[in-house]
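Lecture 7 notes: from sequence to structure.
We start with the chain below.
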Amino acid sequence: MNAVDQLITSKVNQTTPECLRGWAREASDAYLRSGTDMSTTISKIAQNNNLNSNQIDRVCQMANRITFLNIFDGGRQRIIEFPVADSKMISSPVEKTASIDVSDDKYFPGSEIINIAPLEKTAEAEESHDDKKLQRMWYQLKHAKEYFEDDCGGKEHFFKKACDSFVEEGVQLLKGDNTTFEDIIQACNQASENKEVIQFAAKELSKKAANLGILKMAGKVPSFKPINTDHPFVVKFKNLEKTAQNYIDARAALYLAGKYFDQVNKEVKWI
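Predicted structure tokens for the same chain:
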């Protein structure tokens, strides 16, 4: 792409955060409604809207987050499994990007954490080298799966704990005389731009408060009041936001490690 093409693309491709969020929701809705692979949907969106790799990353992250929070349902869904949107498998129409091939011995999910060195070329016959390379990748991916399984367990625990802590703090506020549900959501909106986590938090708190008979609605949007970022409620909401993203990222990494492991497992020869 020459300088003129880049200039034209930069002018045309002026997407807003709301556009990216809308495309992410479109991909998530298609999966939740009919099982359509989110990477496939986002790939079509990227082609139709000239998205660059950074924008594709953002759409994938948001689509995974939206889908996860819909399936999680306050922890009532014990096992959360879904094919995550993988930006590394989606090519940008405005950039030359290299998708990850399972035969590429320079990368595997988790390698940056486990720190296993890539394979060195040998003087053996090509077929023998390929077999050894697949065997090495099999072990690498096996370790990656085991690492992310443990990682997911820990991050799921912290996420659920953060969710319970946030809801309990919100309940205590609603039990007071001066705080309404709208006040709480306004505080969340001021503390974060993460609409998906805000909607999830509102849903969990409203269900708990309704069950306790303390869901006070003002019936109108409250006047703007600057929030105290050190307030326990705001601190707990930010912790919920952080642990949610950490858990979603861990689930995505586990899914990809398992996906590549299954592919290598079909091709590896041990004889």
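Points to note: The longest helix spans residues 126-174. Residues 84 and 252 are 6 Å apart (CA to CA).
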